[in-house]
Design goal:
By secondary structure, the chain is α/β, with parallel strands linked by helices. The chain has 10 helices and 10 strands. It has 2 domains: about 1-115 and about 300-335, 2-Layer Sandwich (Nucleotidyltransferase, domain 5); about 125-295, Nucleotidyltransferase, domain 5 (2-Layer Sandwich), CATH 3.30.420. It binds 5'-O-[(R)-(carboxyoxy)(hydroxy)phosphoryl]adenosine and zinc ion.
């Protein structure tokens, strides 16, 4: 079965074709980063309009390059939430209209389920059950994953998400958007231990996170530098400490959670899973032998259409999906409220 996947929940227009026998047949992505950069973050109205402009062309491009006419796909999967309402509506309207016109089922996919299952697209996919750390721009959650659709929330952030902490810190330092890659790049020339930022809730026994204090601590460091601001080396040193603080908390809590779960498998997904330092830290903890670790392929860490096509294909194979008579999106949608497909 061939499934067309459409992702438009935030600032990336992603399209992909996934075949349940042959795997990924093709994908294309348009990032709106350059468009939003001057505003220091995503402007929802601009995001929606750009998805409208890009999506039809990207669908044609993916179908042409894969040699698969749109009329021959078996189903269309689109991100139904969570995300920006207007941006979600573009993908949902396009996906459901195309599915209706073709007489094929449409499947509304949960964006975080797409992230969470994306490591199954890697060469060494994890078996179920596993513990997943979902760390994106809007979410930082630890989930116990029993099977597709069987998700139990273990821990959540009480305030900012990890990606948000990267993005807000970068903004305070006058770095570009998105902040994660910008801080990570700058951190390479930073020296360890020059600054000391808090590790919120690192040693607390509960598996929740809190990152808003970190942003305040970064703001204090920037203010302390005075009107001339931080010099280049100090900015790099601070970037390094920001990355150290966020990744130490994420890696420690994820490793503790998987060890407590007895599953022996940890999956890391969402945009922050692209972070090199986070991967290094988890590799060190995993080397002690108590768990194995799985990431999505690097190109599939941030938002993309492939993870939506794949999650849609798994649900389609389990009997989900119908020719749409209408559609709705869910800008807020807890992952743990999902059911197993079928
Ligand atoms: O999953 P994603 O692409 O979009 C959401 O669903 O939110 O995640 C985007 C987030 C942003 O906050 C971005 O700064 C962060 O992922 N990110 C990174 C890296 N690449 C993306 N954070 C740290 N290091 C990276 N290399
Ligand atoms: Zn995402």
């Amino acid at each position: 079965m061939r499934v067309l996947g459409i992702e438009t929940s935030c600032d990336e227009t992603g399209v992909a074709l996934y075949d349940t026998e042959a795997g990924l047949l093709g994908q294309a992505l348009h990032s709106q980063v350059a468009m939003h950069e001057r505003y220091g973050g995503v402007v929802p109205e601009l995001a929606s309009r750009d998805h409208i402009r890009r999506l039809p062309r990207l669908v044609r491009q993916v179908c042409d390059e894969a040699g698969v006419p749109l009329a021959s796909v078996d189903a269309i999967a689109y991100t139904a939430g969570p995300g920006l309402a207007g941006a979600l509506l573009v993908g949902a309207a396009f996906g459901c209209a195309a599915a209706f016109a073709l007489g094929r089922p449409a499947i509304g996919v949960h964006h975080l389920e797409g992230h969470l299952l994306s490591p199954l697209l890697a060469d060494d996919p994890p078996a179920f059950p596993f513990v997943a750390l979902l760390c994106s721009g809007g979410h930082t959650q630890l989930m116990h994953v029993e099977a597709v659709g069987c998700y139990r929330l273990l821990g959540d952030t009480l305030d900012d998400a990890a990606g948000e902490a990267f993005d807000k810190s970068a903004k305070l330092m006058g770095l570009g958007y998105p902040g994660g890659p910008a801080i990570s790049r700058l951190a390479e020339s930073g020296r360890p231990g020059v600054f000391r930022l808090p590790r919120p809730m690192l040693r607390s026994d509960d598996p929740d996170f809190s990152f808003s204090g970190l942003k305040t601590a970064v703001l204090n460091q920037v203010r302390r530098a005075g009107p001339d601001g931080l010099d280049d080396q100090a900015r790099a040193d601070l970037a390094r400490e920001i990355e150290e603080a966020i990744t130490e908390v994420l890696a420690t809590k994820a490793a503790d959670a998987v060890e407590a779960s007895g599953t022996g498998r940890l999956v890391i997904a969402g945009g922050v899973s692209a972070n090199r330092r986070l991967r290094e830290r988890l590799a060190v903890r995993a080397a002690a032998g108590s768990f194995e670790i799985h990431f999505p392929p690097l190109a599939l860490c941030t938002d993309n259409g492939a993870m939506i096509a794949f999650a849609g294909a798994l649900r389609l194979a389990a009997g989900e999906g119908a020719i749409p008579a209408g559609f709705e999106v869910r800008p807020r949608w807890p992952l743990a409220s999902l059911d197993a497909p079928g």
